[in-house]
Amino acid sequence: MRNRPRMSTVAVIAGLVLAAVVAWMAWPAKPIVIAPANTSVAQDATTIERGRYLAVQGNCQGCHTVRGGAPFAGGRAIGTPFGTVFGSNLTPSTSGLGDWHVDDFWRALHHGQSRDGRWLNPVFPFNNTTRIARADSDALFAYLRSLPPSDAPVPPDDLRWPYNTQGALKVWRALYFVQGDPIASANEANAVDEVRRGAYLVNGLGHCSACHVTRNALSGNPDMLDLAGGLIPLQNWYAPSLLDPAEAGVQGWSIDDIVALFRDGRAGNATVSGPMAEVVQHSTQHWTPVDLRAMASYLQQLPRLQVASPPPAPAPDARALRVGGERYEQHCAQCHGKQGEGVAVYPPLAGNRAVLMTSPANALQTVLNGGFGPSTAGHPRPFGMPPFVLELSEQDIADVLTYVRTQWGNQAAPVSALDVRQLRGTLGR
Question: Among 59, 179, 249, 259, which is disulfide-ready with 245 (CB 3.0 to 4.6 Å)?
């Protein structure tokens, strides 16, 4: 009986805390007050061209242009585990940025908040854009204002409850958003030191962590600038760790080779494919040599952090090796060599990092959908790999991947038909 008053007090306190949390989530946000720009934003040709280059560095068209549509007019569907988000219209139209002020644009990039106070969905990588310098934000806005206006309709986001509420976005921000320091960003943007400038490009404009981050069930991470790799939601491509030399770390590479990979899409036996091929195609191949070297210098000095080692891989069964070997001989050996040594321009599979990663996702997506590098000035006619999604069954694909991952000194885990089914995602139907 003595515990009843204490329990009642605890219940009252818990109820008050719950009510406070609900009230906080439901309380409408007001637009954050922005300090005006120090000077009026120039609309001269030099500023606009600089903004155009910044848009290329950020690959803004990738999310804000629908295939066949007007550039930056929005409407591109972006799938998430919580529903579909559509890229917004960035042209100076009434449905785009026509009524926006340069301070509104800075509010969106730096605070992740729209001009009317609504919190933006983290599909827009404001954890990265918050690190863009104010001067670069203003130049980017000047470029977008120079575009032809387009009123192409952009569908409303189609997200499930409660992820479609401002309260949920407020919680996500409280857990995972870290606002950048404008002074530090300006210093990094103007830094002569290559590593500091490279940090600005990788963590800000380049928003590399938007893909190369390990995400939890809420698509968040306490460190949203983490570059330790992760599976890209719904696409089921694995963005490999930039910290682990066994995955995509380049700590042991020369600066020239790193630059070549981002400029040409290939360096030695290394090539880019999948989502990274799109980044090279539309963005990094167009960077200046100075910025490419700065990015390379930053990536080269990242700490070496090995991805957690998996338990010892079980030995593949004899049937999988026999059938996988037959499929390899039939479909793969002509280009990749009987011993996985590679033939001419086709890469070797023996010792190949993409083959040996713990997750077989990228090798699987390449077999299913083909492997195509970007067309660049240094490599205008890349050789591609045809898709086998219509030729090989799930079991065939599992067997050939098992064969490739366990032969010629390769020691990765076998792949099962269940692995293939789970990793096919939305692409391998």
Answer: 249
* Max CA pair span of the chain: 84
Phi-psi region of 267 (alpha: psi -120 to 50; beta: other; left: phi over 0): beta
C-alpha angle 91-96-99 in degrees, rounded to nearest 5: 105
Query: What would the CATH number be for the domain defined by 319-424?
Result: 1.10.760.10
Residues 6+ apart with CB under 8 A from 255: 293, 296, 297, 300
Domain ranges of the chain: 45-179, 187-300, 319-424
Closest by CA to 240, choosing from 348, 385, 384, 359, is 359
User: Residue 14 pairs with which residues in a beta bridge?
Assistant: none
CATH code linked to domain 45-179: 1.10.760
User: What is the reported pLDDT for 36?
Assistant: 75
Place of tokens 């300090």: 35
The distance of Cα 345 from the centroid of its chain, to the nearest Å, equals 28
pTM summary value? 0.90
For the record, the structure tokens of 245 come out as: 């030399």
pLDDT tens column, 353-386: 999 999 999 999 999 999 889 999 998 988 889 9
How far is it, in rounded angstroms, from Cα 63 to Cα 59? Answer: 8
Residue range 38-74, pLDDT digits in tens: 656 678 999 999 999 999 999 999 999 999 999 999 9
